[in-house]
Amino acid sequence: ILQWNIRGFFSNLPELQHLITVYNPSVICLQETYFSDQKGHDLKGFTSYFKNRNSLYPNGGLAIYVDNTIHSTAINLSTNLEAVAINVHMPTKICICNLYISSKYNLTLEDLNKLLQQLPRPFLLLGDFNCRISNFGEPDSRGKVLDTFLEHSDITLLNTSEPTHYDTRTNSFSNIDLTICSARQAAQYAWKILDQLLGSDHFPIVISKENSGSKPSTVTRWKIKTANWNQFATEVASGIHTLRDPNSFQVSEINSIVNDFVSLVNRVATDTVGKTKSGRYHRKLVPWWNDECKNAIAASKKAFNKYKRHPNEDNRMMFKKSRSHARNVLNESKLKSWQKFVTSISSQTPISVIWDKVRKIKGIYNHHQITALQDSQNNSTLSDSAKIGNRLAETFCKASSDDNYNYQFLSLREDLISYIPTQDHNSSYINNKITLWELQHVLNNSKNSSPGPDEIPNMFIKNLPPNAINYILQIFNFIWSKHCFPSLWQHATVVPVLKPNKNKLDPNNYRPISLTCTMCKLIEKIINHRLRWFLENSNFFSKYQFGFRKNRSTVDHLIHCSSDIYKTFENKQDALAISLDIEKAYDMVWRPRILNILLSTGVNGNMYMFIKNFLKKRSIRVRANGVLSDVYQIENGVPQGSVISVTLFLVAINDILKQIQNPVKGYLFADDLTILCAGKNLSLTSRVVQSTLNQIEEWALTNGFKFSPHKSQKMVFSKRKNPPPHISIFLNGSEIPTVNRLKILGLIFDRKLSWIPYLKTLKQNSLFKLNIIKCLSHSTWGSDAKTLLNLYQALIRSRLDYGCILYSLAKPLHLKMLDPIHNTGLRWTLGAFPTSPVTSILSETGEWSLDYRRNLLICRYAIKVSSISDHPAGEIIFSSRSSIPGRHILNILASSGTTIPPNLLKKAFDTPPWVRNSVQCDLKLKIFKKDSVPSSAFQQLFREAIIKYQGFTHIYTDASKSHDAVGIGLFSNKSSYSYKLPHIYSIFTGELIAILKAFQLVETSDNQRYIIMTDSLSSIQAIQDRFSDNPLVQKIQILNSTLFRSGKLIKLMWIPSHMDIDGNERADKLAKLSLQNCQSPQLTIKTPSDLLIQNKKFWLDNWNRNWTNLQNNKLKQIKTENRPFISTASTLSRKEATVITRLRIGHTRLTHSYLLMGLDQPTCTSCEDPKTIEHLLVKCPKYTAARKKYKIFLTALQDLTTHPPSTVIAFLKEIDIYNDINSFWPYITKFYL
């Protein structure tokens, strides 16, 4: 515990932060904080308790800060004394009372006794008592009162004889800061004075308790960043030979097989990767602490000790100077450290570092330590980590216990026996052997995450040698085909995380984060890909289930809900909407139900048995404070933290929508169910909805689900002037509450769908996040504009984008409330002056206005829907009876000149990706860099590579693009072909179509072996991805499989372009000639990606046309089209980039601050012309000599772009206006007097 009369919180904050770093206190008690009114200041990572004075000037005041990892509660005191008290668990419960008694307060024994009676035992009463007691000399009048108080038999004074206060006026020491505790606990505490005053005249006091155990231990982690991966791979490769031979695997040995491999990897990793040391949790050093701070504090301490030994005036003045110097050093170091970090953030800074700093700015710290927990069974407090873990494990298991089921379902469950397959059916393609390609695919797409019970992170497996990867594949196929499952994979390590703003003592307020074995996650991903494809291809899922499905999103759910409501308004009806909440949805899924549904759907054999084994005998261990709990079994539900669990849950809940019949409509996003019903008679509508809810209740009863009526909500949508009458809808015997605003998947629906409440909420939330950009965007030492723009796009623009397809239906006046958010964020990103025109800011950042961006996103959504066969949103947008949202989308799409062609290539899902024969690719020449190898050498390398393809028919493909068209050329041994595409197509599409044409040529040819050569590496990489959504790639892959089955062998080879390789040069020439040849066949293949490019180009051209027609804009004088200037400015320092940006825009503090201050426009002191950037840089004769010196010859402002920024900056410094462009007050006198 740190006790200190800080004499001003803000003035001594750096010293306090240093003390926190060094002594790592669990509780901080401060007196004389000088906070004003009832507002305090939070310390990040601490819970705060305040008592401030209501006075005109800040004085007095108390604060207690408790580490967030420790549970604490406030104690309400009834006293005239200035005191604040809390109960804190460290880990045993103790009361801490912080007290400040002003020297002007008339202290009485009654005040102290009354306070003591309110403090629960044991307690610590500490603070600044402002009195002298007899223990340390002659007592004063207030000290005598305290002496009498200390005569209580159950309290003890912890102070030693060391003084706690130094009076600079009288040069004397005193013991006015006291620490009093319960007598029984006195022997447990150590009381220590820190012999340095820092910025206060009171010494800090540290009160420690032996073996308190209040600070939990940390968990060891792998040192991934310093790992020796080469040595790791080498040792694992040699160790694989010591493991069991895959040919001798036995089902009974599956646990040993997996455990032996895990042990090998962990043993090698211990030597080559290493782990961090375990120990007590400790706060990290403050980043601004350096040797200069250390030396300044040491000098201040030395001066004070010298003054104590020799208390003369010289030593006193030396001490005061050194203390003042130390304070200045700390404040300056803190400021410079922040500036240095912000300045260092650039586009090359790892994104993890940036987000870590952003989280710290927001006050988000990842603390998972739990020091105390309430045991409701015997009304006691648990402090032992093992007991805490067991109590949490019991709570988590209770969420999936059979006790949560309705007694009626429990009685029905006995009759709902799961089907048992009579035999294995492995004929289905979903039961095929797992391939190496599938394993590599999921491994390459796996992100680094915390390891589970096997302690193997993904990074370990990614760095395994080929023989180890093959060993994993053999384990997977053995498990897959022999229907066994390792017990280690059925187990999860659970990390409890406290829910926001919840009581730390209540175990029900913790959310379980499950960590499962990495190897199990890999095979789950493979199986999940197969199961998802099978279910989607067999149309198992309801078309109105939008959750966690490919090509489905929350927007699909929201547009259906809003479309129904708008139709209701058009028909002059009311709509009753209900948002239903399922209690413990994932935890209470009845597992046999999942298996029954899968069997009835045709899932059997390996797939069925894997899922069945996966769901059996699930168990968890909770890790609390680095200690693992006992093992607890999970009775029901799908395993949390597992990849395939979401799919299994969707299987279990899918048929709920079958209970909803017209006129009621239901839309599902995972477990979020929204039902709507429209009608002119609200009473009749409510009866229809109630009937539907009764059916849903019956479904839930027979399937083990339970809806929560109190968390569900209902709302009536109506255009009536007066609110609709109250209606009662019941669920499980309780009425569903009525709300005026219904929140569905993050969007707020109001009664008339004006979207105003959502827009206001969105603006408020965005303003809060905008503060992060403000912190990092100082115009002198802020981060570079490119990084700030990335942060803005991730933090704020993404929020503005979400739901804009719907809220864009709001009135234009209401939509404008979001424009200041967008414009301010971009202005701070650039460092532009506040008076800068919005059009200039948008042009410099390359960001569109929100109106243009909404239009672009709406068109993107329409094109996406059109590219997917039978997409449910298609009936809203493209139907002849579309609703207001559909017509709104179509109108914007039509205004962009984009039409959906009837022959648009759609995404195909006919052939399973793992069944398709992979296109064999030769990338041997890719290892050589074109820049470092001459063309003659590349030609030789090509000749050597092509030797092994003797007997193959050679086909060369290429594509070329001009402003008018895209040309395609094919050249083979005997013939050549050329085609033309419209200019809207990308070169990537052209290269893919060229390869597709080559495959089609193979289809009609008689030879059996072919090699197709292309210089498009991106096309080859796309074709290698069997899960690609690109329709052209899918057509190539399917055609390749068809040709392979017919006995034809096709190889795809990458060759470098423009290296005088004869076939490639001929194909390139054919592609370019087709651009000029009007007779070249025109292809009409259209893909969604090309429509997106065409649509984006329209909006970009429209934006540029508006820029061209813009009048009276200074930036337009030097910029003819909207291109971001950020990429160029990123090479400059933040201040230099800001200066150049302000010069380009033409608005600076020097020339436009008069607008902010309400003054007249300033004039040039030498020629009386209005002071503008153009005048200063081009026209003013005063600076002619400086222009000649730096060879800046400008006839107009647009000539500024021809000079390097460094030259312009040097010129500005020469004429002494460089700092005036950024600074504000210093130049006012200079230019206005």
UniProtKB/TrEMBL annotation:
GO terms for molecular function: nucleic acid binding; RNA-directed DNA polymerase activity; RNA-DNA hybrid ribonuclease activity. Keywords: Nucleotidyltransferase, RNA-directed DNA polymerase, Transferase. InterPro entries: DNA/RNA_pol_sf, Endo/exonu/phosph_ase_sf, Endo/exonuclease/phosphatase, RdDP_mobile_element, RNaseH-like_sf, RNaseH_domain, RNaseH_sf, RT_dom. It comes from the Eukaryota. Residues 949-1076 form the RNase H type-1 domain. CDD domains: Rnase_HI_RT_non_LTR, RT_nLTR_like. SUPFAM superfamilies: DNA/RNA polymerases, DNase I-like, Ribonuclease H-like. Residues 478-731 form the Reverse transcriptase domain. One of its GO terms (cellular component) is DNA polymerase complex. Pfam families: Exo_endo_phos_2 (PF14529), RNase_H (PF00075), RVT_1 (PF00078). This is Putative rna-directed dna polymerase from mobile element jockey-like protein. It comes from Triatoma dimidiata (Kissing bug).
